[in-house]
Amino acid sequence: MELKHAYRLLNTGASVLVSAAHAGRRDVMACAWNMALDFSPAKVAVCLDKASFTRELLEASGSFAIGVPCVAQADLVFTVGSISGRELPGQDKFAAFGIAHHAASVIDAPLVAGCIGWLECRLIPEPHLQQAHDLFIGEAVAAWVDERAFEGGKFRPLDDTPPAWRTPHHLGAGNFVVPGAQLKARAQTSG
Amino acid sequence: MELKHAYRLLNTGASVLVSAAHAGRRDVMACAWNMALDFSPAKVAVCLDKASFTRELLEASGSFAIGVPCVAQADLVFTVGSISGRELPGQDKFAAFGIAHHAASVIDAPLVAGCIGWLECRLIPEPHLQQAHDLFIGEAVAAWVDERAFEGGKFRPLDDTPPAWRTPHHLGAGNFVVPGAQLKARAQTSG
Fold it and tell me: Where's the Flavin reductase like domain (chains A, B) (predicted)?
């Protein structure tokens, strides 16, 4: 997909998967605290806890991938968000949970299969921000979508999107809300 | 509401209203690019375009309010997100569009009436971040909710929430998706 439309994958605020790889190790985690940050260049921001192994790999490699999951992957999102890659000695989450994945085109991080969209991001180093606020800024250098959910630079109309292909939005503790209606707002006129 | 639960208002990624006031002037804008950043202290991040008047007032006052709107306010969200406070000479958006509001308890920014939750935030100054990435970090110093939508530190179950009280999530160009289903994910076991 065109990078100028990448922000739209994050605009509705769904939880995402963040993955990273470095020196033969890899990890993936769930991230509800994410947002778009610019149109072009396409920038994104994610908040990653200091305890996460994904964060360590991201900092070492200077790159990360974002996967925008669908409802069919809700159990996977909850699972990789509930356990640290440090807690699986001798294997990683991809092996432990049989997570299918593809190679990225530009970066080392694996792309989780079955998502509706992916952003390959280069970290824009901001050491103070990373340390003080756990906030990481990336520039998307490649973006991919599954056209069954997202086509022509935008999400398909909700009525054309089967429930399993919609985005899970995390309430907490594994509870998610899922879009069920779409509306078009009207601009009000000033008095 | 307790500040330790403030992040949950932003967790599902709905669009929010950001308001600010300084020296007798006030403004409000829509912001799809927002996220929680910490539990306690409750920190948030919002991305605000350099052209926005709300941003100027926020920088001058060192504080801002976040309102989490409901579907009944979708036209309002779209309207205040489509016009700049600079384009209304002689009046502000609150007067021009008849936006009901309340005084905040700690800060100067007005709270838009009819939202389901509000965060009063003090800006954590990060000049480089604000200039380079249009990103503003705040600490919530007070938080309020309408218990018809959010009670006991979390959103009410979706089935108990009338459609008009649910949160609009912006696709773009005034098109929003609205939660229509809730699911509970199950943790997978490692192989």
Answer: 7-157
Question: If one looks up domain A3-177 in CATH, what number appears?
Answer: 2.30.110.10
Give the minimum alpha-carbon distance from A1 to chain B in angstroms, rounded to a whole number: 17
Q: Are A176 and B183 in contact (CB under 8 A)?
A: yes
Cβ contact B173:B30 at 8 Å: no
The 3-state DSSP class for residue B76 equals: helix
**To the nearest whole percent, how much of chain A has pLDDT over 90?**
97
The count of CB pairs under 8 A between chains A and B is 209
Give the phi and the psi of residue A159 in degrees, each rounded to 5: -65, -20
Task: Answer whether A11 sits within 8 Å of B170, measured CB to CB.
Answer: yes
Of B71, B98, B188, nearest to A76 by CB-CB distance is: B188
What is the residue extent of each domain of chain A? 3-177
Q: What is the pLDDT of residue A191?
A: 74
**Is the ipTM here above 0.85?**
yes
